Amino acid sequence: MRSLTNLLSIKNFTIVFILAWLGLFILVPGILVILVSFFSPSPESFYQAVFSLESYTKLVDPTYLKVFENSLYLALWTTLFTFIVGYLYALAVVNCKKKWHAFLLILVLLPFWTNSLVRIYGIKNLLGANGFINQTLISLGIIDSPLRILYTDTAVIIGMVSILLPYMILPIYSSLQKIDHRLIEAAKDLGAGPFRRFTKIIFPLSFPGVVAGFTLVFLPSMGLFYISELLGGPKSLLIGSVIKSEFLFTRNWPLGAALSIAMIIILMFTMWLVNRFKIGRVE
């Protein structure tokens, strides 16, 4: 009886601790951001506690709309390429011998052991005019002068794909691993070819992992501002870069908070669409 009481007390303490942590570091900062977004900017301070919708009216400015458009553009392309590479890799891992599964998954997890900023600097050196790619192509006689890869949208997409790829591979691998192979064998016995088996059985049953991968890749890719700043040019701005500038350099906290709220709304709407799509496919 005493051990049960101790167990319940530990469980209650854990629940209270988690709720307090989430409330202090997530709920309270979120409420503060919402409140600041309705305040007025002040040249003497970060903001003044006077109700104003000025920051939200600025969101329809063509400059900020262009940044939102560019962020969505880069996020969609990043998600698409990550899905193609991630699904093929996960499919290859599932179809190889089981003794290789652990090794191939460790290769996916290896990037997590290195700081992402360090990896981005490595990619920057790789894509530069004197980087490995250009020097290899020149030495092979394929090109005469270096290709301009760095400081373009292409470089930003390459960087984000390399950083976010594990988040696509792991959920897809998990879904593929759970597929009952007897279904595939039955379809094969009934005369279904590889393409038909993939489109009718493998991909539909792995769709929950695809949805999870899309969510884990698309949502962060709109805010990885350090990648766009290091690999992209001035036209490769992400909304995260603008928010950082408003808080740290321009010191217009109400506008930075309003941009953050707008980004959260976009991401929540995206998650809602993904969830509706997922429900429709599962049924």
TrEMBL record:
**Gene Ontology biological process terms, A to Z:** transmembrane transport
Membrane topology qualifier: Multi-pass membrane protein
Localization, per the record, is: Cell membrane
Q: Which GO terms describe its cellular component?
A: plasma membrane
InterPro entries, per this entry?
MetI-like, MetI-like_sf
Q: Which UniProt keywords apply?
A: Cell membrane, Membrane, Transmembrane, Transmembrane helix, Transport
Residue ranges crossing the lipid bilayer per the database entry: 12-39, 72-90, 102-122, 154-173, 205-227, 253-274
Against Pfam families, the record matches this protein to: BPD_transp_1
Can you name this protein? Spermidine/putrescine ABC transporter permease
Question: Which organism's genome codes for this protein?
Answer: Psittacicella melopsittaci
